[in-house]
Amino acid sequence: QVRLLESGGDSVQAGGSLRLSCGVSGYSSDTYRMAWFRQAPGKEREAVVSVDSNDRTTYNHWVKGRFTVSRDNAQITLYLIMNNLKPEDTAMYYCALDPRPGPTLAPGNYNYWGQGTQVTVSS
Predict the structure, then answer these.
(1) CA 85 to CA 75: how far, in whole Å?
(2) Predicted pLDDT of residue 64
(3) Beta-bridge partner residues of 24
(4) CA distance 61 to 98
(5) What CA–CA distance (Å, rounded) separates 114 from 9?
(6) How far apart, in Å, do the first and last CA atoms of the chain sit?
(7) Mean per-residue pLDDT for 111-121?
(8) Residue 54: half-sphere exposure toward Cβ, Cα within 13 Å
(9) Which residues have C-beta within 8 Å of that of residue 41, sequence separation ≥ 6?
(10) Of these four, 6, 19, 23, 25, which has the most CB atoms within 10 Å of its CB?
């Protein structure tokens, strides 16, 4: 059974930084794509960034260099480094994985999801 577990969410002040992690268990293929999504209260889930096992990466247009994704292929771990956090970044952040290659920001293209980790940014 494939499981994703996010960690690293916290409450920080505006301008601060966080690093989110997403560990994967139960997945054995070398081919995949993974992504970070977020969902704020009352809003739809939106993609932050997607990366595949060939290191092809796609960021959502609003990221504008504040967030950086990286991964550890040996253990299929996904990271998201978030800098200069703003109150509007407050959301539950989710990790997602799909067996197909090619980064995509569409949530419907992911088969597996984690439970999320909460990020709260105060002004």
Answers:
(1) 28
(2) 82
(3) 4
(4) 22
(5) 13
(6) 40
(7) 98
(8) 7
(9) none
(10) 6
CA distance 31 to 112: 14
**Mean pLDDT in residue range 44-65:** 95
- Residue range 36-64: mean pLDDT, rounded: 95
For residue 122, with 0-12 CB atoms within 10 Å meaning exposed, 13-18 middle and 19 or more buried, which class applies?
exposed
Closest CA to 115 of 3, 27, 33: 3
Inform me whether the pLDDT recorded for 73 exceeds 90. no
Higher pLDDT, 74 or 6: 6
Question: How far is 102 from 110, CA to CA, in rounded Å?
Answer: 11
> Which residue type, as a one-letter code, is found at position 121?
V
